């Protein structure tokens, strides 16, 4: 059993995908986890998959529970109320929430303190956190204890938070294998508006233009369209809450987008005008510059990998055979993409490797009769 | 040697990435290919890599050449002039261009016919085509004969084109292993505006907002941001030409985007207003619906694959070992993604398989000690 920072017990309020995943991850580490959810079904499933045991569900005296930590895994629009309730009910516990917006929840808790709904000192035990992880499925049945492995876990300390509570919040992320990142609630909300909420909006706006597209147009779709629209398949219910709770930060970015879009439309309405091509060049170059700033794998500085492209038949085992040869070549794979194309039973596999290793890999694979496009 | 439809000789005007790739692909099939480029260096490199032999470069009498087909692989802004010149110089040849916009080139050629710069009948020998293929590199040194394999090759017949010329244009795509798709120039330009030019613009507009982002915000970037901005790294020089030549079609789509964006900004400026959440839900659901219409691999109807996620250490050979086990399980891999996360030396590999096969694969891999998140 791995050594943990948390000693428990840990109470999880809300046993959807994320809450149940937290419970599973902690339970496997030997931490005593209690579960509670407004839905009896959700909490029963969470217990069945091993995420912990239902609060008050048998031998325990729920009222006597003194959790070290309460994890509020409720949707953004009820998170603040559940946190306030937990602060009142468990006067010794650190209480964290894991919702994807932070400033609106902290503001609601400050209001609750001002209104006397929670004691003035209670706020010192609250810390907002945000694990940057998710799945395309939802609900406790989709929960996985490894969901947070190697993902950022943002811990948002605030002026009234006690150092002990902040440490406990960080311990939760660390115990679950995540990478703890510290920033305040405002910084967090501005950051996720830019790197998460804005791409979601852009992808949804882009994909929605395809609704009435003729089928022959869609038959020409390539990886560019597929990549840019993949997240447009996300769950509307969750995103409505996220976007409405972080609206001021998102709107700031959308104002910038609107300015750029207006300029671009004016340019393309008269592409023969003086300076039009220069305007287009500027848009494209700004896109180049912004894209180049996104960090690479493992938080390393952005780095261009060398891409070795291999043509494979679409038969079971072909990709495996190729990857086995790559492994034997002793070259580490930094990334892999399969190229989807229409109407043919062959495809391309793009292998990304460190720039210095591509010649060697190309030679090795060519020697083994692979059709390589370096 | 594979049997070809074309008998040649084929003259390629323009030996950049695409022209040289056409030459390489045809030369390997045994077709006699001649090369010409305004840049002596580019044409020499193309000859050196085996794309064909330089026109007039030795034993041949360039003036006596009677090509079956002339392939104009010049940039969009000079393509029409080069086509017109080829129609005059080679009065028996079919002439195709492979630029990524089609209506503006056809219109320029009609003007040339009206102005008497080409003979009235010459237009019957011209057919516009567009191979939907490319690489992140450019120039003849990056050329690959397999570049067009399994990719769509759009053939745009027009009212004055002879059936024989259209057939020759289609033969070119077929000989290079591409999938021939027929539509007229206007349909083509509207289609690529939507599935290629618009995603490029959306990605560039999105990425350009990252230019001045704080580094701590970018450290939270996940696959959503990476996917939506990948094509923002594209070459500005080429895209300036493409966008300016297809401006009317692109502008139509951008007007629709602007309407949606204005509505969204108004909604997010007052997210507490009546109907605001419904508006957000509508945007997200339209995005869902549009994304679901994009055809899957091999042109099949869009289909949700089951995703089996496996956690792997970031060591050479791990992915290969995993894929070897997938191959042994006898389950065909429809897609594979590696999940990039920051700061950790482990990663996730997402294996997409037919929905009915995921349980079996999960069992097989779990039995072999892989950490599987189904």
From TrEMBL, chains A, B:
Domain of life from the UniProt record: Bacteria
Entry EC no(s): 1.3.1.12
Metabolic or biological pathway, per its Swiss-Prot or TrEMBL entry: Amino-acid biosynthesis; L-tyrosine biosynthesis; (4-hydroxyphenyl)pyruvate from prephenate (NAD(+) route): step 1/1
Record-linked Pfam families: PDH_C, PDH_N
Swiss-Prot/TrEMBL catalytic activity: prephenate + NAD(+) = 3-(4-hydroxyphenyl)pyruvate + CO2 + NADH
Record keywords, A-Z: Amino-acid biosynthesis, Aromatic amino acid biosynthesis, NAD, Oxidoreductase, Tyrosine biosynthesis
Ranges of residues in domain Prephenate/arogenate dehydrogenase: 8-302
InterPro entries xref list: 6-PGluconate_DH-like_C_sf, ACT-like_dom_sf, ACT_dom, NAD(P)-bd_dom_sf, PDH_C, PDH_N, Preph/Arog_dehydrog, Prephen_DH
SUPFAM superfamilies reported for this sequence: 6-phosphogluconate dehydrogenase C-terminal domain-like, ACT-like, NAD(P)-binding Rossmann-fold domains
Every ACT domain range: 307-374
UniProt similarity note: Belongs to the prephenate/arogenate dehydrogenase family.
Name recorded for this polypeptide: Prephenate dehydrogenase
Species per Swiss-Prot/TrEMBL record: Zhihengliuella alba
């Amino acid at each position: 059993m791995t050594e943990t920072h948390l000693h428990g017990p840990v109470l999880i309020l809300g046993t959807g995908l994320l809450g149940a995943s937290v419970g599973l991850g902690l339970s496997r580490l030997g931490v005593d986890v209690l579960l509670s959810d407004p839905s009896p079904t959700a909490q029963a499933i969470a217990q069945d998959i091993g995420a912990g045991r239902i609060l008050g569900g048998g031998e325990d005296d729920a009222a006597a529970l003194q959790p070290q930590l309460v994890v509020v895994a409720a949707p953004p629009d009820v998170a603040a109320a559940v946190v306030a309730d937990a602060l009142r009910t468990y006067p010794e516990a650190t209480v964290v929430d894991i919702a994807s917006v932070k400033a609106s929840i902290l503001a609601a808790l400050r209001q609750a303190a001002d209104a006397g709904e929670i004691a003035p000192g209670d706020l010192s035990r609250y810390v907002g956190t945000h694990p940057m992880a998710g799945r395309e499925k939802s609900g406790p049945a989709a929960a996985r204890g490894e969901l947070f492995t190697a993902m950022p876990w943002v811990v948002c300390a605030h002026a009234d938070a006690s150092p002990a509570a902040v440490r406990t919040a960080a311990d939760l992320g660390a115990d679950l294998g995540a990478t703890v990142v510290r920033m305040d609630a405002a910084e967090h909300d501005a950051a996720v508006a830019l790197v998460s909420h804005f791409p979601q909006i852009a992808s949804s706006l882009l994909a929605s233009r395809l609704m009435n597209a003729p089928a022959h147009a869609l038959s020409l779709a390539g990886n560019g369209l597929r990549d840019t629209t993949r997240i447009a398949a996300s769950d509307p219910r969750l995103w409505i809450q996220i976007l409405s709770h972080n609206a001021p930060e998102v709107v700031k970015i959308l104002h910038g987008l609107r300015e750029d879009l207006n300029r671009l439309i004016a340019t393309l309405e008269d592409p023969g005008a003086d300076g039009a091509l220069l305007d287009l060049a500027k848009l494209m170059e700004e896109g180049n510059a912004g894209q180049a700033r996104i960090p690479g794998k493992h938080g390393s500085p952005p780095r261009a990998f060398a891409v070795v492209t291999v043509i494979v038949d679409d038969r079971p085992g072909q990709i495996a055979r190729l990857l086995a040869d790559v492994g034997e070549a002793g070259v580490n794979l930094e990334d892999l993409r399969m190229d989807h194309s229409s109407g043919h039973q062959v495809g391309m596999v793009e292998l990304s490797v460190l720039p210095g290793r591509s010649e060697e890999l190309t030679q090795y694979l060519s020697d083994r009769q692979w059709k390589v496009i370096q």
